[in-house]
Amino acid sequence: DSAGDSAGTETGEIGDTAYTDTQDGVLINSDFLDGRDVASAKQEVADRLESAAQGERAVNYRLRDWGVSRQRYWGCPIPVIHCKACGIVPVPKADLPVLLPDDVSFDKPGNPLSRHESWKQVDCPECGAQAERETDTFDTFVDSSWYFARFTCADAATPIDRKRADYWMPVDQYIGGVEHAVLHLLYSRFFTRAMRETGYAAMKEPFQALFTQGMVTHETYKDKNGRWLLPTQVEKRDGKGFHIDTGEEIIVGKIESMSKSKKNVIDPEHIIAHYGADTARWFMISDTPPERDMEWTESGVEGAWR
């Protein structure tokens, strides 16, 4: 139990309060860990378990099982065929890659591939009986986990030209957002290890250096009903925000990374039409170091234009 600046600190009773300050908290009611901070307590527990041969330290990557299938058209087809007699049968190498059909219809909800009979209906590669393709497609992370190797030989008839991939790889400098650290970058390392083990590439790691750029941020806005509003729907007066259409005062939220879900985004076409593309570019590169977040403001854009 961790105690800090709360009632639990004074009484030492667990039931008085729940305290979860893992930065500055001190453990109480924890036997040999009393008085320790959280970090040193973790080390002490691990030391005792290892010395007693009851456990050992391990890295927890917080990576969950990966459900790679998607019920949608956009994505690489999963190369298997379902046969009533033979079960799940891999598509023969000679028939790879499986190409998506061009004549799909999106007029109904759901996966259009499951309704495309001429594409879905095939013969079983093993027994020749009528069978069906798998209509799920791969998660796009499957593509983004090895595209850098394919870029070295995009015109090759095989997935990777080993000689060319070994010449260009690994990537010297990778630039990406911090949100990729726990998914895309880990998946890329996993795929790279797999490519090395199967002889497709010699590299041990996909990227030599990583630069995490800052994000473009903007204020967030909500109406009285909690609905997100676009910046173009808001007028600022005397430090307050008002809905342009209704005149009602709105809630001005914190500055966050631009997000379609929170609608704190700016249409670049409006900026380009009013100020020109060079103004937008100049504002982006002149105001903030690339590794830091940059707040997008109308006044900042106008200043760059002047």
List the SSEs and their pairings.
Layout: E1 2-3, H1 7-11, E2 26-27, H2 38-51, E3 69-70, E4 80-83, E5 87-90, H3 117-120, E6 121-123, E7 130-133, E8 137-138, H4 141-144, H5 147-150, H6 162-168, E9 174-176, H7 184-197, E10 210-212, E11 216-222, E12 234-237, E13 240-243, E14 249-257, H8 268-275, H9 277-286, E15 294-295, H10 298-305
Parallel strand pairs: 9-10, 11-15
Antiparallel strand pairs: 1-2, 3-8, 4-5, 4-7, 6-7, 11-14, 12-13, 13-14
Helix pairs in contact: 8-9, 9-10
Topology as a string of helices (H) and strands (E): EHEHEEEHEEEHHHEHEEEEEHHEH
CATH architecture of the largest domain: Single Sheet
Please state the oligomeric state of the protein chains shown.
single chain
Largest sheet, strands/sense/barrel: 5 strands, mixed
First-last Cα distance: 58 Å
β-strand amount: 15-25%
Level-1 CATH class name of the largest domain: Mainly Beta
- The largest sheet has its strands arranged as 12-13-14-11-15
Give the beta-strand count: 15
Proportion of helical residues = 25-40%
**Alpha-beta content class:** alpha+beta
Overall structural domain count: 4
Instruction: Please state the average pLDDT score.
Output: 88
Count of helical regions: 10
CATH topology title of the largest domain: Rubrerythrin, domain 2
Which regions contain 5 or more consecutive residues with pLDDT less than 50?
Answer: 2-12
Rg (C-alpha, Å):
28 Å
